[in-house]
Structure prediction request, 661 residues.
Amino acid sequence: MQEFSSQAAYDRGEAVCVIGAGASGLIAVKNLRENGFEVDCYERDTVLGGLWNPSNQHSPLYPNTHLVTSRSQTEIPDFPMPDHWPDYPSSAQMLEYLQSYASHFGLAEHIWYGSEISHIESVDGARFEVVVKPAAGSAARRLRYAAVIVATGHHWVPNLPSYPGQDLFRGTVLHSSQLGDGSRLRGKSVLVVGGGNSGVDIACEAAVSASRCAHSARRGYWYLPKYLGGEPSDYALARLHSRPKWMRRFLTDRLLKGPRRLAARMGMDEPDHAHTDEEPVRNGRYLEHVGDGSIERRPEIARFEGGEVVFVDGTEMRPDVVVLATGFRPKLACVPAELLGVDDDSPYPRLMARMFSPKAETLAVAGLVESGVGVLPIVHWQTHAISHWLTIRKGDPERAANFRQQVISESDQYAVSSSGISPRHRLAVDAQEYLAGLGRIIDTLEQEPVK
Amino acid sequence: MSLQVWVRRTRSPEPAAVKREVNVLEPADLLDVDAKDDPDASPVLCCSGEPTGAAAFGPLWLKRIAASGRCAAAVSVRGQGGTPAAPGGAEAYAHDVVQAAIGMPRQAVLIGHGTGAGWCALAAARYPAAALVLVAPRKLPKRLPRPVGEPPVMFAVTEAEAQSKEAQAVTAAYGISPLTFPGGADEVFKGQNAEGLLDAILSWLNRKED
Prediction:
C-alpha cells in the first residue's frame, strides 16, 4: 500500500472535493457535475441525506420533525418536490426527496461513504491537499484537488448551556438531538428549554404525550402559524415583496397582527427584533397549547437544586426529563480556522458573500446561512455561483480577479448587526437581500466576457 | 432559469395539483422484441399538443423508444387524455411536464410535439433535461427561455414548414438548424414517415452519448 502512505499525495487534477453528502453536498455535486467538473464527495457516515436521514448516527432529528418552511419555498429550484405532497413535508419525505434527487442525477457514484476528512491544507497556491480517513481499515489517504467545497452543515455540535447545580440534578438531561423518537417523553413530567423552532416543536409533542409539559424561553420570539391568510405563511409574506415598500409594511403588519396579539395575550415577552431579523418560530399549534394550559410557559432557568429546577421568577418545578432544545454551534472541524476567517474573538466564520473563503480562492462553504426561507434553494444558487466561478477561473483568470473584487464589495452588505444572543443569529441573513446579492453575483458570472 | 425568474415563480401561486396520466413503457415490458435494457441511457419523456395526450405516442413511439433500450414515457398534461382539466395556461402545462420529468428514474430527454414542443421548451428552462427535442413546434411562447444545464437541442420540422415563423424562432433561440422530414405535421405518429423521423431522433440521442 505504498501509494496510500502518508507521503504520497494522489493528484486528482481539476477535480473538486465536496465534504458532506447531506442536502447541501448533494446539490453541490450536482451543480459541479453539470458544469463539467470531476467530483469526489466524502461522507463520514454510511448514508446520504445528512441530518434528514435518521439512520445517520449523528442525525439531530427529533420526534415528528416537519419542515418549517413550505414546499414551494424549500424545494430545489430545478428539481421540484411532487406537487401532491403536503405544504409542509415531513422529515421522511424530505429524505425521500433527497434520495430521489441523488438517483435522478446519478450522484451516488461520486460519493465515498465512511470517509472523514481529517485535514485540509492549501498547497501550490490555490490547490488543496485533503487527508481522507476511512472509518475502518486502511490508513489515511492524501489527495490533491483543485478546489474544496465544504458542505458539512451546522446542525451537528449541540450548543449546551450549563446552569448552576446541573451536575447534581437527579433527572435526565438531554439535548434535542438525543431524543430519538418521542417515547422518552411519554407519561413524564417534561421541561423543554429553548424558544426556537425545535424547542417549540418538542414542547408541542410533549404537550400531548407527556403528563406535564413546561417550556422555558428566555426572551420573546415571533410566533408565526404555518398558515396566514389562507396561504403558507412564508409564501404569503414573500409574495408581499412584489408590492411597493409602504404597502408591504402595511400588509405585513396586518398579517402579523393576529399572532402577535395572541402571543401578548399568553403573557409572552414582546420580541425585541423585527420578524425578518431572525427566523421566526413557525408553529401553529404552540400558542393553542399554551392557551389550553397543556404547555406552561416559564422564564429562564436560574439553577438546578437536587430534583428541582428553579426559574428566574422564583417558581419551581420537579421534571423527570429536561430537554435542551438549545440549538447547535457551527463548527467546521476539518478546515483550518484561519482559512475561514475565524478570528480569536468569535468562533463564527467570516466568509465573503457567505460562501467564499476570505483567504483561499478555491475554498467555499455551502449552506452556512440561516435565512427565513428554506436553505436548499439558497445552497442551489450558492453552488451554481461557485461552479460558474470555478469554470471562469479555469479559463479566464483576469475576469476571475475582477469578479473577486465584486464579491468583496457584495459581502459587505450582509454584515448583519449581530444584536442577538443565540448562536444561530450569527448566521442569519435577510433572505431577500441575500438572494438579490447572489443574483448580482451570478449575473456577473454569466455575462459574456468583453472581447 | 435565472435566479430572478425563480424568485418570481416562488411568489406566484403554484398551478393546482392534478393526477397526471403518465404512460410508461420499459424495455423489459416488451415481450415480442428482444430489447437490451441500457441503464445508463437517459429515459425519454414525450409530450404532445394533441388532445389525446399520452395515448398519441402509444402504438409506435413508446414501443420503438423502449426497443432502443430506453425507458419511454408519455405524459398527458391537464385537460388531455386521462388527466382531468384544471385551470392554467402554458406555464401550468410546463409545470405538468416538469412534474412528470422528476418522476422519471434518471435525468430525462424531453420530446415535445406540436404545441407540446413549447411546453417542453418552457419545462427545460426549469428542469435540467438530458436533451430537448422539438418536433414540428406550433404556437411557441414569444420568448424561448434558455434551457438550464445546457442540454443538447434537436429540432425537426416537416419539409413544408422548414421556413415557417416557428422554425426561424427555434433556430434563432438555440442556434441549431432544423432536421426536415417528409410528410405532414400530423403524420408523426404513424406511417413510414413517422418511423423514419423517430429513428433519426433515436440515432441522434445515441450519437451524442458516445
Remarks:
- The CA atoms of residues 37 and 69 of chain B lie 4 Å apart.
- Helices of chain B lie at 3-10, 58-67, 90-102, 115-124, 165-174, 192-208.
- Chain B touches chain A through 29 residues (CB under 8 Å).
- Chain B has a mean pLDDT of 88.
